[in-house]
């Protein structure tokens, strides 16, 4: 009997203990929630309306000023990476369609575009620029739907820069003689332009605006995952009254791009995309008279000196690799931080990352939207898994959990990474940062230059002389000082080595579209 009673007492004691444990746990959790709330606001969703865009279920090619069905009648889907759903069907241009587009461009070049004055050409470009501004919201929403980038980026960065590029180049159209003083300039003829998916409309503007200002006609092929904003631009171009054939837009994948760049009646090829395809195009055009510019990949580095304004540098690093999902050719994907501040810097970076919002691209609060395609997401995951298997220090955080549908990847970094590590050498094209340290400026420069690429770099220091000296040692086309990813139509952009040939933007960007004698 006594035995039984003792047992019961023991049992109750355990029960009480369990209860107390449970109670304590609840208090700790509540405290956690409270302190979390104290330092971080809860955001309510703020979705941009999609009412401004009307997406056609089937989208034709834009040839000779008209929307025409593809001759072989084949279409392919473009997806909204934000939810993985099909947005629309888009025409796949065959060799025959590409040929029609090139013929239209040639005819327009010979009969109208090369005959009118620079001032007249400028008027059309100014008109297109104004029309883009008027329909800016529509372009921004469409870009976000098709590409997955956050609305705040397409609205505040991409589309304003698109209009700015048209305005800037419109201004050059009647001043080409002043762009290259003492020289005689002439357009080349017909340009074939192939662009990627990371800045769909901005890359179209970088290609079309200088080509037209310089007096050329173009056939543009947008990327297969993001063709819709270029087709809306075609509509604007049609409404602007631009003579038919001056701009033609053919949609399709690599095969269409290949038909275009290999067409015999092309005078110039402008390509932005992967180094692999860039090399193929370089080989194919080497045997021809075609001019070629290439804008390829990168593995750009930040160099952060111990005297840098640390919080400002943190923002630059975060902006340089995490925003736009790391889908930026000049993404600052490597961070070289001076050893003396490395610990402080990475601690601060961790704190900052915990406030980054990954989510619906249409939400105005979203910092990191959707990865452009399932294929790209898989590629990024493979890189991250590979680097984790190699054993590099991994950190990943964000303020929000990614939506369950669509293609998302949290921001992350690998710390104390060796220069030989894959994640330090290869372009990931996702929100993945590789961090290493240095002790002297010479070591920082050597590490930054230790790459087959050479597109951009960021230097962070309070001392102008140090920045200047570092910049002179860096083999990169663009070097930002105490800032990153800042673009302006008047400044040239382009790379060294495997990052490409030639420059886009500014006076330099006109040069590849002109015969300068
Ligand atoms: P990609 O080079 O395959 O595609 C870019 C463009 O070229 C697209 O319009 C595509 O249809 C076209 N293309 C593909 N094969 C072609 C061919 N043989 N001839 C002519 N045109 C062809 O790039 P991607 O597959 O979209 O992306 C792969 C990688 O490229 C990315 O992960 C990234 O590393 C890099 N990339 C770089 C940039 C950049 O701005 N430098 C942009 C996008 C992608
Ligand atoms: Mn798409």
Overview of this protein structure:
It is a single chain. The chain is 43% helix and 16% strand. The N and C termini lie far apart (113 Å). It is globular and about 75 Å long. The chain has 2 domains: 257 residues, Aldehyde Dehydrogenase, Chain A, domain 1; 186 residues, Aldehyde Dehydrogenase, Chain A, domain 2 (3-Layer(aba) Sandwich), CATH 3.40.309.10. The model has no long low-confidence stretch (mean pLDDT 94). The strands form 5 sheets. It has a 7-stranded mixed sheet, sandwiched between helices. It is built from 16 helices and 20 strands. Helix 4 packs across helix 5. Helix 16 links the parallel strand 17 and strand 18. It has 517 residues and is of the alpha/beta class. Nicotinamide-adenine-dinucleotide binds next to helix 9 and helix 10.
Draw up the topology in text.
Layout: H1 2-39, E1 58-59, E2 61-63, E3 66-68, E4 75-80, E5 85-91, H2 95-113, H3 118-134, H4 136-147, H5 151-172, H6 176-179, E6 185-187, E7 190-194, H7 200-213, E8 217-221, H8 228-239, E9 247-249, H9 254-261, E10 268-272, H10 275-286, E11 291-295, E12 301-304, H11 310-321, E13 334-338, H12 342-353, H13 374-390, E14 393-396, E15 412-415, H14 422-425, E16 432-438, H15 441-449, E17 456-460, H16 464-473, E18 478-481, E19 500-501, E20 514-516
The protein binds nicotinamide-adenine-dinucleotide and manganese (II) ion.
Nicotinamide-adenine-dinucleotide is lined by residues 194-198, 221, 223-224, 253-254, 257-258, 261, 272-274, 277, 280-281, 295-297, 329, 427, 429.
